[in-house]
Amino acid sequence: MRTSAILGQPEPIYSSFGSCHCNAWSKRRSMEAQPLASKRLEVATVLQNHHWQKQLDTQGFSPDRLRNVSRVLNLITACRTGRMGSHLYRCALCQRGLMGMDHCDDRHCTKCGQERRVAWRKEMISWSLDCDYFHCVFTLPHQFNALIYANSRNLYGLLISTGKDAMLAVMRDEFGCVPGITQMLHTWGQPMNQHVHTHMIVTAGGLSLDSTQWITVDPNHPAIQPEHLAKVFRKKFLTRVGHRLRRNVLVWPTRSLLPEGDCHEALGLSSYEQMLSLCGPELCGPESEDVPPPDVDDEPSQVVSQCIETGVAPRRATGRQRELTLQEAELLQKLKAMRWVVDCQVTPPGISGPHRAISYLARYFTGVAISDKRLVSDSDGTVTFSYKDYRAGKERKLKSLTGAEFNMRFMLHILPRNFARVRHSGLFMPAGRDERLAKCRELLEMAKQVRAQKQPDKVQVDALIGDADASDDDDEEEVHKANSCHCRYCKDDDTELIGRLQGSETMWIMNVAHLIVMQLGTLLPVINQATVDELLKQVRSCWLTLRFLPRPIADLLRGQRFTPLEMAALEARLLHELAQTPMAAALGIERRPRAPSSIAARQSTPTSGVPPPAALALIAIP
Predict the structure, then answer these.
(1) Helix axes 326-337, 226-246, angle to 10 degrees
(2) Above 80 in pLDDT, residue 505?
(3) Residue 201 CB: number of other CB atoms within 10 A?
(4) What percent of the chain clears pLDDT 70, i.e. is strictly above it?
(5) Contact 184/365 with Cβ under 8 angstroms?
């Protein structure tokens, strides 16, 4: 016999018709069905409808990337469906049972992450300094996309580090200061194509190199203009890519390492021929030979003579590098002659600090290329979603893709496992951050007092801006509160955890409730509210007397074994299912709290020695 999921409860409770318990588990397995379809179109539903599992072998993934993509998609499609388990709560006000499905909390999931986004935004605001900020975007040309697809982890990290180094170098060489930098990687455009870029929030100034003063950066300075930043970024990135190609660190893309079919549009390329021109027959050029060991007798004398002549110790040997292939050299030369896109804008007037940029990036802290609300339809093998066309003045348009291509584009933006999408550097570097920020606030406060003496009216302007930001923070508080655990019937926040169910138990309860509601729908002309009240009363009392129930429903429950926790979950699921049906009003099922008198009467009436639901809520579980 199974043990109960609640400590201190007896063994599983059987129905009063207990003559058919021998086949209870086989009957439970036979009642399992697929998860109930959601009314709202979701990305996870689209992925599952078009069988993402069958497309994994056609994407050109490496073994590690294949395992990671499969893991992420399994989590996303199981999120909030019951397959991951559930939690059962009871509202303290209306005493209704609430069944909440466990979620995956994966950063690519479109249904998870709201609380993490709010927490990240609050943390970033707490780091903010009382100064202006730049919002910079460093974008890679789409000619890199095929190479990025085959080396995602390496080139994603290279993009972030190169953008950071370019900004730090400009600030150090031109202004003699160290700014605070926060970066976030984006890999997609609105049509879900590959558009790799990084957003950067940079303080419009920084701590001087000797840490004695705060240096303010003029946004109109030539060194901070997009053209100059693009030149510095392009030079650094191409140099590092060329070095990695010579060292055979990067895998040169071939047609077998890219998705099957015509995928040039998904990769952000203009034509299929352009995509083929970026592919080569070799994986990484000529095979590199082993570096021969140095001559033991000659090496010490060479090192000593070099030290005497130059006064500097020689660099550590880095190994042999090969020459670039003709295809690699042509690509780098073509990219060197191109105009790279870098955008740098100062914080808009009327907004103090980094609030606008942080609020924008917080939406992408979790999630991926598309959200559920952008989905329009999924029918006849075609998925339609909306997107903004920035080339047409942010006009809202519709785009239709086949189910296979939609899945491919979604997989395109799944990040490598344990890859840090958000990184901090400069003043915001984690090591010693609190001390540096305290020093910067002290220097900024001194500068602010000097400006206030020269411009008294500036204080009033800052106060008005602060009030505007406070209202924005209040809105975020309301969003966070709305997403906290609360009763969906009476909207009360005082809920208490009763217990947890595993995935198989949750799916079984969901399907039993679904089948019961289906039977009630077929029996609607001959049943009344008293029949539904009798069913809920028996489920609530954890004791089934099947002779008082309609025969089709009794046949569904006959021979089943329920623990008290499963009975409470069945009641919660039945109320939820019935409230969604058109017969809810006819059966007296409404989304409103029960009368206090009925709650008190139900709590004070014992049911055959079984504790009432109020007592169940007080029993802890492991």
Answers:
(1) 170
(2) yes
(3) 25
(4) 74
(5) yes
Q: Which of 268, 238, 273 is nearest to 255 (CA)?
A: 273
CA 465 to chain CA centroid, Å, is 32
Report the distance separating Cα 552 and Cα 550, nearest Å. 6
Q: Over 90: is that where the pLDDT of 112 sits? A: no
Which residue matches tokens 């979701």?
42
Q: What is the 3-class SS of 511-556, one letter each residue?
A: HHHHHHHHHHHHCCCCCCHHHHHHHHHHHHHCCCCHHHCCHHHHHH
What is the number of alpha carbons within 13 Å of residue 398 lying toward its C-beta?
A: 8
Residue 316 contacts residue 205 (beta carbons within 8 Å): no
> Is residue 162 a contact partner of residue 399, using CB atoms and an 8 Å limit?
no
**Tokens 């927490």 found at:** 119
pLDDT at 455: 52
The dihedral of CA 102, 105, 109, 114: what is its sign? positive
Q: What's phi and psi for 345, nearest 5 deg?
A: -130, 145
What is the 3-state secondary structure of 342-363? EEEEECCCCCCCCHHHHHHHHC
Task: Give the integer Cα–Cα distance in Å for 501 and 84.
Answer: 9
CA nearest neighbour of 580 among 26, 40, 144: 40
User: HSE (CB half, 13 Å, CA atoms) of 497?
Assistant: 10
Q: pLDDT for 455-486, tens place per residue?
A: 544 333 233 223 333 333 333 333 333 344 67
Residue type present at position 168? L
Q: Which residues of 332-351 are buried (b: 16+ CB within 10 A; e: fewer)?
A: beebeeeebebbbeebeeeb
The span from the CA of 563 to the CA of 180, in Å, is: 56
> Does residue 38 carry a pLDDT above 90?
no
Q: Can you tell me the mean pLDDT for 247-267? A: 91
Angle, vertex CA 621, rays to CA 617 and CA 622, nearest 5 = 165
Could you give the angle at the alpha carbon of 596 between the alpha carbons of 590 and 600, nearest 5°?
Answer: 120
Long-range Cβ pairs for the range 512-515 (8 Å, 24+):
512/31, 512/556, 512/557, 512/560, 512/570, 513/570, 513/573, 513/574, 513/576, 513/577, 514/33, 514/36, 514/577, 515/31, 515/556
Output 459 or 55, whichever has higher pLDDT: 55
Q: What is the CA radius of gyration of the chain?
A: 31
Q: Which residues contact 351 (CB under 8 A, 6 or more apart)?
A: 465, 468, 469
